[in-house]
Amino acid sequence: MALTGRIALVTGGAQGIGRAISEALLREGAKVALVDSNPEVARECRGRLEEAFGVGSSLFFECDVTDWAKLQEVFRKTVKHFGHLDIAINNAGINNEKDWQKTINVNLTSLIKGTYLALEHMSRENGKDGGVIINVSSMAAFMHSPHMPVYTATKYGVLGFTKAMAEASAVGNFGVRINVLCPAYVDTPLLQTIDEEDKMGRYFKYKEELRQSMHTYGILDPSLIADGMMMIIKDGSLNGAVMKITASKGIHFQNDEPMSA
Ligand SMILES: NC(=O)C1=CN([C@@H]2O[C@H](COP(=O)(O)OP(=O)(O)OC[C@H]3O[C@@H](n4cnc5c(N)ncnc54)[C@H](O)[C@@H]3O)[C@@H](O)[C@H]2O)C=CC1
Ligand SMILES: CC/C=C\CC(O)[C@H](O)/C=C/C=C/C=C\C=C\C(=O)C/C=C\CCC(=O)O
After folding, report:
1. Which InterPro entries does this chain map to (predicted)?
2. What superfamily does domain 7-248 belong to in CATH?
3. Is the dihedral of CA 42, 187, 110, 31 positive or negative?
4. DSSP-assigned letter for residue 4
5. Which is the catalytic residue, given 151, 156, 185, 217?
């Protein structure tokens, strides 16, 4: 998929991984709607992106992805403004084991809603031209870590939901490729929640083990995650792919054993 003139929507787009992917898309000539709940980081991000890529190449929406009416409106307004939608990246996510129901709501429930909204605007079932969806999970979906059990559960959920939806898209001929990306630790503000008792909750006592895990597995630069995203976006053969990005193996794919009856 060549990216000039393509239209993308990125949730949690103003900071960290979402920002890195938004910048990569803009560099390649796409237009990007950034959706973020944090007005301060969004303001700073907007200034930088408009300076670097020009006013008009990006749209900014202050929106909490858990607000269903607002999320619907953001997709609608993006399509109205740019004409259509080609790429949706459900990236917004949090680590909050204290308010764990919020973690499920942001990381899993809202990602499911974002996927369905993207399909509404891209699927051939609805008379649209197809596209690509990337859902952000984590290497936490392959680990059984005691440090963030609910976060881990949401990322398992994202993995399972996305693989099932990819099959649904293939069977239903939606014309939409749906893939999942699982990074290991990435150098973003999210990692700072390790020092916030308010976010770690009862698992705060494991923070040194968690820090040790980061030391063992390494911390990646967000630009590498953006590289992985761009690979998925451009490779039209990928549907249902599970991309892992780790310090030891770099960008690679999970290959499942074929299931025997
Ligand atoms: N940083 C890491 O080590 C890893 C992160 N991930 C996942 O990558 C995704 C992005 O994470 P980071 O960039 O690291 O986090 P981050 O905290 O640096 O950035 C997340 C962005 O999402 C926004 N956001 C948070 N909740 C939101 C909501 N309810 N509605 C709209 N926007 C919201 C924040 O304002 C922020 O701009 C998350 O899904 C995270 O779980 C996956 C693996 C590793
Ligand atoms: C305070 C911490 C908050 C959040 C952390 C995260 O955002 C995050 O999503 C967690 C990531 C956890 C990563 C853990 C493990 C990394 C493992 C490896 O790198 C394993 C190496 C190779 C495996 C190769 C393979 O199986 O393909």
Report:
1. NAD(P)-bd_dom_sf, Sc_DH/Rdtase_CS, SDR_fam
2. NAD(P)-binding Rossmann-like Domain (3.40.50.720)
3. positive
4. T
5. 151
pLDDT of 146 reads: 85
pLDDT at 145: 78
Q: What is the pLDDT of residue 198?
A: 98
Q: Which helix (H) or strand (E) holds 151?
A: helix 149-172
> In this structure, are residues 240 and 163 in contact, taking their beta carbons and an 8 Å threshold?
yes
Ligand nearest to the CA of 246: 2
Centroid of ligand 1 to alpha carbon of 239 (angstroms) = 23
Domain extents in the chain: 7-248
Angle (CA) 257 243 178, round 5°: 90
pLDDT-flagged residues of the chain (< 50) = none
Ligand 1 pocket test: which of 75, 139, 162, 188 has the largest number of ligand atoms within 8 Å of its C-beta? 188
Pocket of ligand 1 contains residue 41 by CB under 6 Å: yes
Distance 70 CA to ligand 2 centre (A): 32
Question: Which residue type sits at 135?
Answer: N
CB atoms within 10 A of CB 223: 14
Contact indicator for 132, 177 with CB cutoff of 8 Å: yes
| Ramachandran area for residue 14 (φ above 0: left; ψ -120 to 50: alpha; else beta) | alpha
Report how far residue 23's alpha carbon sits from residue 21's, in angstroms, rounded to the nearest whole number.
5
Is 151 marked active-site?
Answer: yes
d(C-alpha 74, C-alpha 120), whole Å: 13
What tokens appear for 181 in the block?
A: 């990306």
Taking Cα atoms as reference points, which of 189, 191, 163 lies closest to residue 256? 163
**What value of ipTM does the predicted structure carry?**
0.98
